[in-house]
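PROTOCOL LOG
Step 1. Enter all chains and additional molecules of the complex.
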Amino acid sequence: MAGAMDLPAKGGFSFDLCRRNAMLAEKGLKMPGFRKTGTTIVGLVFQDGVVLGADTRATEGPIVADKNCEKIHFMAPNIYCCGAGTAADTEAVTDMVSSQLQLHRYATGRESRVVTALTLLKSHLFSYQGHVSAALVLGGVDVTGPHLHTVYPHGSTDTLPFATMGSGSLAAMSVFESKYKEGLTREEGIQLVSDAICAGIFNDLGSGSNVDVCVITKGKTEYLRNHQLPNPRTYVSSKGYSFTKGQTEVLSTKITQLKPKVEVTESDAMEE
Amino acid sequence: MSIFEYNGSAVVAMVGKNCFAIASDRRLGVQLQTIATDFQRVFKIHDKLYIGLSGLATDAQTLYQRLVFRHKLYQLREERDMKPQTFASLVSALLYEKRFGPYFCQPVIAGLGEDNEPFICTMDCIGAKELAKDFVVSGTASESLYGACESMYKPNMEPEELFETISQALLSSVDRDCLSGWGGYVLLVTPTEVQERVLKGRMD
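Step 2. Run joint prediction.
Step 3. Record the structure below.
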C-alpha cells in the first residue's frame, strides 16, 4: 500500500477503488451516471475526400451539461474522429491514439494512415470488451486515398461510403439514404452533412445546439466549428437581472492582496 | 439513493471581466442528517487557481490531497505554478485513471491564466472536461443552479456585480435543494486580490 502516494502512476487504468465501490453498491447506493454525448455524428466520402459532421450537445441524464461541446477530435493533421457514447471515454481514447500516431509518425517519418488509427482504436476497445463505451466515426485522407470507418464500443469496425452513429443516427441515416450519391462535390457534401446533423438535432432529444463540420482533402483539412447555428438563444431579456451592491447579506469578509511575483532572469554581465 | 446524494453539495463558478468567482454551500450531511455547517469544498491550489469538489466528501478531500501533492511536485520541477488548463488536464487524467472504480466527485476548476484571462471548467466523475466561457455548476443542486445561472449571468461583469450575481444564483438554487445550503462561501479572484466572503443563508 506504501507505493500509492509516493510515485506518480505509470499510466493505464487503476482499480484501487473497485472493492470499496462494490461494497457501497451492495449497501444500496446507486452508481452515478456519466456524462454522455447523446449525439448525432456522421461522415461521408465525396469526390476529393471526406466530410465529418457532429452536433454539439453534451447530456448528463436528461439535463444538457454543455450546449456547445466539441465532438470532432483531432487524431492527425489528415485524420479526424467524431465520438459518441461516454464523453470521458471518447476523449481519452482519441487523445491516446492521437499521441500514439504522433510517435509513429516520428518513428516512420511518414504521414499517418487511417487504417493505423483504426487498428489502434479497435484493439484498445476490444481489449476492454465494450466497457470503454466509445462509438466513433473515423475519417481521413492518406496516400492510399480517402477512408471512412465506424468503430463500435466492442471493437468491431465497418468501412463505408457514408456512416452515422449516436442516438440521432437513424434520423441522420434517413437523410443520407435519400440523398447520398457517389462523386458529390465539396459544397454538396457539406450541405448533405449539415442536413443530416440538423435532422438529428431537431428529431433526436439527445442531440442539439449547433452543427460542426470537418472537411478533409488531400493535403488540406478545414475544421468548420459551429458551421451552422440553428438554435440561437432568443429569449434573453434585454434588461437582464441586476442586483444592487450590498444586496447579498454577508457574514464575514476577508481580502488578501496578491503579491506580484518577482521573476529572476539571467542577465548579461555589465556592459563595458 | 445515489452516491452523490450521500453528503449533498453545490458548487458554481462564473467568469467576469478579468476575474472569476467560485462559490459553494457549507453543509456536510450524512443522508438527511446535517453534521456540519462550515464544511470547506473550495480548495486553493495556488494563488490564482482554485478547485471546488462536489459529491462524496471523503473522495473530495482525498482527491484534493492528491492534487496538491502533484502540484507541489510540479512546482519543484518546473519552478513555477501550473496553468489552469494544464491543471484541468491533470485532474481529468487522474479521474480517468479510475474509470472502472471512480472517485465520486465532480470537480469545478477556476483560475486566472496567462494575461489574467479567467478559465473555468467542470468534469464528470470520470474526467470528461467541459470548458465553458460563462459558468459551470456541480452538485446535488446542479439542476437549479443551471436554471439560475442561465438567467442571471451576463458577460463581462465587474467584480462587485459578479459577486452579487453568483451569490444570488447560489442562494436561490440551494433553497430548492434539501441536501445543500446552510450558508454559502464565495471566493472572488481578480489579478490583484482575493476576496473571501461567507454568506448568510437559510439554515434549513
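Step 4. Note key features.
DSSP finds four helices and twelve strands in chain B.
The first strand of chain B starts at residue 10 and ends at 15.
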